Amino acid sequence: MSLIIPSPSIVRPSGQSDQNGTDEAVPRALRQRVYLPAYAVALSIVGLIAIGWTTHWGGASLTSSMTGLRIVIIGPVTLAILALLLVAERVWPAQDRSFFARGHRQDVLYTVLNMTLTVPFIAVLSLSFAEVVRTRLPWLTFPRVGALPHGLVIAAIFVAMDGCNWFAHLANHRVQVLWRFHELHHSQEDMTVLTVFRTHPFVHFVYLIALLPGIVLLANGALPTGLLVAYAGWVALAHSNIRLGFGPLGRILVSPNYHRIHHRTEGRQDVNLGFALSIWDQLFRTAIFPTPQTVGLTTGLKGRPLIVEHGTLRPRHLRVFLLQLVAPFRPMPDNRAPLPTWTPSSSDAER
Ligand SMILES: [Zn+2]
Ligand SMILES: [Zn+2]
């Protein structure tokens, strides 16, 4: 199987040229073959895990961490939720799709990847990050405050964690190197509940900041596994191909109709960035609420700058899967649209 793809020419950021001395610091031949910032992310991940490894994960148990993560991502309750949503997609589809649509089959590969390699990867990444924060930034951890009600602590961690996920998601849409890892998630043209798994493993690096609220309040309480399972189930629901909005409740919670707007092919995709709560989008003016016209919108990346299973005569799932995983490290293709800039009023205008 060949992983060689045509070498597209590089899209050079405006203001830079080959006549520029600093530009020449990186040989042009190298830049035409690889996208160096993606390697910087990979190196950062290796460095972080190396710290975790050499410090024995700060004394934490890697086995119990992986077990907890497995319960959240592939535990019996999560699998039951996924199965229920797959059935609901047949009954109330937002878009008519065969159960065996190409995009669905491709997402099965990502589901298998998540259920096997991604779980231990996230576990070592999380333990390493927690150890670095604990040792390098010990002042971040609050001491125990006995008077704090347990329920309030749990609610605060949950809301702050969701807020951090929103912020990391925004960064994925605004920072070029992060977008190169995140665009895989947006390449899905046959949305299904399994699209929640269609992510590049390295995208989890930026979502590590969502661990911070739990680390800050660790002495006062921790999120129960059941709540994390419910959170994972909710994010899966948001990706399902179900025609479902929440009416006024959509002002608080993310619905499938709401998240589909985030995945739409036409229009800005840096809107409706919320994971479970839609309050962050309203706060930062990136919310577009569903209307009858937005239900069943087509999804995917305009112009297909990333190879997708729909782009070839035969699907060739495994080959496309491997090419999608190495794509962030390849030079940027010419047909890549520029990333949007921070102009809140522009998303307001679409309301
Ligand atoms: Zn996104
Ligand atoms: Zn999504």
What does this structure look like?
By secondary structure, the protein is mainly α. It has one domain (34-335). It is 49% helix and 0% strand. The chain contains 13 helices and no strands. The chain has helices at 28-33, 36-54, 62-74, 76-91, 102-136, 150-174, 176-186, 212-216, 225-239, 256-262, 279-283, 317-326, 344-348. Helix 3 packs across helix 9, helix 4 packs parallel to helix 9 (225-239) and helix 6 (150-174) crosses helix 7 (176-186). The longest helix is centred in the middle third of the chain and has 35 residues, at 102-136. The termini are far apart. Bound molecules: zinc ion (2 copies). Residues 185, 239, 259, 262-263 line the site of one zinc ion.
Task: Please provide a brief summary of the model.
The protein has 351 residues and is mostly helical.
Secondary structure blueprint with pairings:
Blueprint: H1 28-33, H2 36-54, H3 62-74, H4 76-91, H5 102-136, H6 150-174, H7 176-186, H8 212-216, H9 225-239, H10 256-262, H11 279-283, H12 317-326, H13 344-348
Helix pairs in contact: 2-5, 3-4, 3-5, 3-9, 4-9, 6-7
One zinc ion binds next to helix 6 and helix 7.
